[in-house]
């Protein structure tokens, strides 16, 4: 399996290459990976081999086949009687509200336990999603990777490495505004709640219904945009490339920015002045998420910090916990760390085949399988009411998938995919007035997922399927599986020995190795 792991590693590097840096058209041609995928498919087929029944050949095999057919016929013949008896018992229970055991004795109905209720809710939710249909629409306008997206009412706001922020009207799938002003790639977006927008609208003498969106960029600026006019009402210079951004609706409200050097900065929403700077991480802050008075930050080295936010202190942030990569199992060149908190748990995606679940109070880690092999890459994780959503990209065949898990159990529901669906790097979701789901995914393309009503007769654009290998795969673990660890070992063995290469910036030496 050594060659398989090496090919998987090279495919992973090539797929991550275009995401991390911009390539010229000539470089894109050089890193085409079709021949690598063909070779990998051949090796996997050789290792799996045809599934055969050993030790049964010739007449003996035919004899066993006849015996199985005879037994099957006997069982089929018995089924109607059993089915009739079961239906009669169920009918009696329905009429008088009682339950009958196998000996004909009647018992009073017993209220279901909490576990039984959860199981019933899960089965109902699974059946609903197995019948789900979606219509996909591509929003065209960005010229580079879409790095972030947020939803505000019927609008989607997207940020791209092409330096622009675009506002889209989802029902008509049209570009409403192009917000230009950043001189570097847009890395993050955040939409403050309406009550905080009203406060800022009074400051700038705008209508009370005005909505704002915040954008962060590698140009070291955070810009505040008024969506109705597309005007930039305020630009905040942070002195560091902004890699993540979060609005905290606590007290007067705060803007928190994370830099590519690991620094957190806090800005007052009322005065838009800096009120705290904290060297929180050793590497780029890749994700910031709030939950009530708590802030969660994650970085490229695989570290997760938990902060308490209060407007009663001079410095609003107070660190409660810090969990390093030895606990989270994240970090390295696999992918950027993205987190999504829920109660005591934080769901983490970091470019591996599983979603990591961290109990931020105790440091206990579990792994939720998001792909059936280590060839899967989990790029983002998100939550909507009752659902955990994980994107998965198969580097072996280039297939992109969205996996749905039921909350709070974290039990696998279904997988959604479509032909030619690109790798999903960001995700936004909300519910329509009718209660149907509407999602937006970003990466190489910006795509709207619109759930169709149950009465819709035509086939949707999305294939819904179930992967039995993802069922019951919530694993207690404080370290990687053997397969994932073997990939790490392969990475360590493949460090370039040429000292002249190591003197170059990491991105350029990596690019040169892959292109060669």
From TrEMBL:
WD repeat windows: 139-178, 211-235
Biased composition (Basic and acidic residues): 87-106
Pfam family, one: WD40
Lineage: superkingdom: Eukaryota
Protein name (Swiss-Prot/TrEMBL): Lissencephaly-1 homolog
InterPro entries referenced in this protein's UniProt entry, alphabetically: WD40/YVTN_repeat-like_dom_sf (IPR015943), WD40_repeat_dom_sf (IPR036322), WD40_rpt (IPR001680)
Residue span of region Disordered: 87-121, 475-508
Start-end of Acidic residues biased regions: 479-504
Gene expressing this chain: si:ch211-154o6.3
SMART domains: WD40 (SM00320)
Keywords associated with the record: Repeat, WD repeat
PANTHER family, A to Z: NOVEL PROTEIN, WD40 REPEAT PROTEIN
Entry annotated with the keyword Repeat: yes
